[in-house]
TrEMBL record:
Keywords: Aminopeptidase, Hydrolase, Metal-binding, Protease. Coiled coil: none annotated. This is Peptidase family protein. Its cofactor is a divalent metal cation. PANTHER family: AMINOPEPTIDASE (PTHR32481), AMINOPEPTIDASE YPDE-RELATED (PTHR32481:SF0). The lineage of its organism: Bacteria, Bacillati, Bacillota, Clostridia, Eubacteriales. Zn(2+) 2 binds at D168, E197, H307.
Length: 342
């Protein structure tokens, strides 16, 4: 299963090569052409010479993680966070370090010795233990500048859920790869982007290069339908369908575009929900500002515990997101893209 392989692949922002190779292997039989740009985005196309609007669907390859910054004399590794990681979740977690996947554990001062144990230990006071007893021994295995990711296996959880790391946004990557297996009546561009987690960087160059008439971003988004969370602050709910964004910190999709998504869902009986919170952002924040402006919208799969060592999502939400996007693209063939003001 491609999603399982993508989830377990290691690709922190700026080091997406392994993820890109998996995706290229999966989509190459179904596309007309591809290129890897200077940022590292994987840009693919099918039906380039067909009439109709240029449609771009994007999903980012990178995940949150850490970068090794220093090796102590003891052989312990100091690190810096890459992307939005919660310090509360780090101590005691298993990680893989560097291109060889050296196993390690994130450590901190034991609670017995820490007078401030009731507070959260900041990341800059934590370290990664790879079992080395000296700096020289550790340097044979890893070096500063290399990345570490959580060591989490993908798998089923309970009835109808999956668990794994990096669902933000390997979920979107898997959905986009599946979309590329089908044919469309218009030029279809897929953009597997880099460095979303540290500033939506890859999306900016991808959108400029493709110059689409309309763009859709596929994401794994926050889901807080858990005890203690007020209903209005839950963002999304697991098992209630893919989420459509009305507004977030980086983009307000044009109404006609969200209306088309809603119509595609309702016409086919696909459950959907509105993303209730407006914090955070996606690649749409950069795409919609490219060139003279690109109408952009976001469809997301709700995921509990994103940006953590292990997230949970509904299998049905995932499949319904695929159905929704396919329906939207089918309808786009008929309705086209309106001009501003239509």
């Amino acid at each position: 299963m491609l999603l399982a392989r993508l989830s377990e692949a290691r690709g922190v922002s700026g080091d997406e090569g392994a993820v890109r190779e998996l995706l290229l292997e999966a989509v190459r039989p179904h596309i007309d052409a591809y290129r890897i740009d200077g940022m590292g985005n994987l840009l693919v196309v099918k039906g380039k010479d067909k009439p109709g609007p240029r449609v771009m669907v994007a999903a980012h390859m990178d995940e949150v993680g850490v970068m090794i910054t220093r090796i102590e004399k003891s052989g312990l590794l100091r690190f810096a966070k890459v992307g939005g990681l919660d310090d509360r979740l780090l101590p005691g977690k298993r990680v893989r370090v560097g291109p060889d996947g050296v196993p390690g554990v994130i450590g901190s001062k034991p609670i017995h010795l820490d007078r401030k144990a009731s507070s959260v230990t900041p990341a800059d006071e934590l370290y990664i233990d790879i079992g080395a007893t000296s700096r020289e021994e550790a340097e044979k295995l890893v070096r500063p500048g290399q990345y570490a990711t959580f060591d989490t296996a993908f798998g089923e959880l309970g009835q109808g859920c999956w668990k794994g790391k990096a669902f933000d946004d390997r979920v979107g990557c898997a959905l986009l790869a599946a979309l590329l297996e089908e044919d469309y009546d218009f030029p279809f561009y897929g953009a597997f982007t880099v460095q979303e987690e540290i500033g939506l960087r890859g999306a900016a160059t991808a959108a400029y290069a493709i110059a689409p008439d309309v763009a859709l971003v596929l994401e794994g988004t926050t889901c807080a339908d858990i005890p203690g969370a007020d209903e209005h602050g839950q963002s999304t709910r697991l098992g209630h369908g893919p989420a459509i964004t009305a507004m977030d910190r980086t983009v307000i999709p044009p109404r006609w575009l969200t209306d088309r998504l809603v119509a595609a869902a309702e016409r086919r009986g696909i459950p959907y929900q509105w993303k209730r919170t407006t914090f955070g952002g996606t690649d749409a924040g950069r795409i919609h500002q490219a060139r003279a402006g690109i109408p952009s919208a976001v469809v997301s799969v709700p995921c509990r515990y994103i940006h953590s060592p292990c997230a949970v999502m509904s299998q049905q939400d995932y499949h319904d997101a695929a159905r929704l996007v396919r329906g939207f693209l089918e309808d786009l063939s008929e309705g086209g893209v309106p001009r501003h003001g239509d």
